[in-house]
Structure prediction request, 176 residues.
Amino acid sequence: MIKIRFVLLLICLMGVVTTSCKDELTSTYSEKYRVMCGFQVVSYKELINVIGNYGQFASIRQSGSQIVMKTLQSETSYNMDALSKDFRFGLGGLIVGTDTWGNYRAFDLACPNCDRVDFRLTMGENGIVSCGKCGIKYDLNNDGVIFDKGKGTYESPRGLYRYRIAYDGMRVHITN
Prediction:
């Protein structure tokens, strides 16, 4: 009787682990790292540029008591206000912008295959970002899919962690 209970418990646990991993890989939006933030677009020149222009993206990350926003053209550090101190920026920060079809997009700034905060992606031309460690390149204009496998160190690399984004004409909201 004890052996049967143990086997049933083991089967149940395996089902939970398998399901949670599978859900993360097949879900459109990632739940792996907590994301919750909002920005008044007119207060940040980088957001004004990327929200209004197709194929443009900006990175957003926290650095101490500041928020650093960066595009290919500029980088600015902003002081965090009382509200932004409670923001959650995923693992490595965020990439926010508008794809070439006019859809708002938000992704994690950390490489999902290296899966470490210190392996942030580097912004490149035409919505392509790359990881300096593994060399994988991702296409922001196509839902963060792999553009180039790089050094090929991962057997089955995954696309970028993607987050929900809403823009109401004044504010950008990004969540899991």
About this structure: The radius of gyration is 18 Å.
